[in-house]
Amino acid sequence: MWVEIICALAIYKIVRLFFYNDEFSDVETLEKLHGGKAYVGLRIPDADTSSRQDVDLVLVTKGQVEVVGVKNLSGIVTVTSDGSWVCEGGKHHSTQTYPDPLAEVKKQASVLESYLEQRGVTLLEENISCKVVIPNPNFRTMHAFPSEVITYEEWQHLKPVSRNILSGWVKGAFSSGKEMHDSSHQKLNFILGSAPVWDRVELKNSKIVLGEFLEFKGKEEDTLALRHIKRSKVDRISIQQTSMLGFAPTRLQVLYSYRDYRSEGSSGSETKEMTVRSSTEVVFQPRDSGKIKKFKLSSLLSVSLSA
């Protein structure tokens, strides 16, 4: 039991790092903790609405597909008769209403199931489950949520009921389902690995921000050099320093790789490079935000572009 609790706490802390302040952290760490694969920021096509369903996090092992929704809510939350959550207070001292988060995640899971089935992978009912995680320590409520909703307070205090939830989540998420055949498991990971996702920028502090890449800003000479980087052709941009002896770089090396549509991999083998001023910026629209952000290339490790 205590081993399960410790593992669950570690997973929760990683999830909190991923989604607290709408930024993400090291996906590889989470994958090592639960022994599977983590897919962050998916945008799954919904055939019924001709739109895309945003999925915060999908955890995959041989026995389970866990669809996790994250609500970074701060304030006092009450639940209305129709299941909506009303959050009062928080940073801006306002009142906001949210559709039932658990119902939303179940809808996302249903869309994901349909998408996988269309691409040749059918999941058993026991192989897919849903959770809502609330990583914000300023979340408060008097409401008794179902076990699929994991609040910050439950994880922090480890009350007896929380231990059952922790144990149940670990067992349910990572070991309860009937194991898939290797071929089905490999195909599932390939489908999710090639599914539509948000663009992402990776900062030097290991944070990842999801959203939409808009353009480069800077001196005309640099923006002209970067005009060849288009999402239809390029899938990843890496930034490297060119200075020596610890001096602040005035120019940066930009390496970009072309997509290879002929193979199952999303990245081609051809890589090109150029140098631009370190003051050049990436203009980026974070998801779920009305404000556009500008990141200096000198603060970034990479930019990934969805097809």
Percent helix, as a range, is 25-40%
Largest sheet: 8 strands, antiparallel
Assembly type: single chain
The order of strands across the largest sheet is: 14-13-12-17-10-11-15-16
Structural class: alpha+beta
Proportion of β residues? 25-35%
Stretches where pLDDT falls below 50 for ≥5 residues? 1-11, 158-163, 166-175, 264-268
Ends: how far apart?
A: 44 Å
How many beta-strand elements? 17
CA-based shape: globular
* Rg from Cα: 21 Å
SSE order: HHEEEEEEHEEEHHHEEHEEEEEE
Put the structure in a nutshell:
Helix content is 27%, strand content 35%.
Give the key terms:
7 helices; NERD; globular; alpha+beta; NERD domain-containing protein; 17 strands; 307 residues; eight-stranded antiparallel β-sheet; five-stranded mixed β-sheet
Overview of the structural elements:
The protein is of the alpha+beta class. The chain has seven helices and 17 strands. It has helices spanning 2-19, 27-34, 101-118, 152-157, 160-174, 182-193, 220-225; strands at residues 37-46, 51-60, 65-70, 75-79, 85-89, 94-98, 128-134, 139-141, 149-151, 199-203, 208-217, 234-241, 251-258, 271-277, 281-286, 293-296, 300-304. Strand 2 and strand 3 form a beta hairpin. Helix 1 packs antiparallel against helix 2 (27-34) and helix 1 (2-19) packs across helix 5. Mean pLDDT is 80; it is low at 1-11, 158-163, 166-175 and 264-268. Residues 18-135 form the NERD domain. This is NERD domain-containing protein. Pfam families: NERD (PF08378). InterPro entries: NERD.
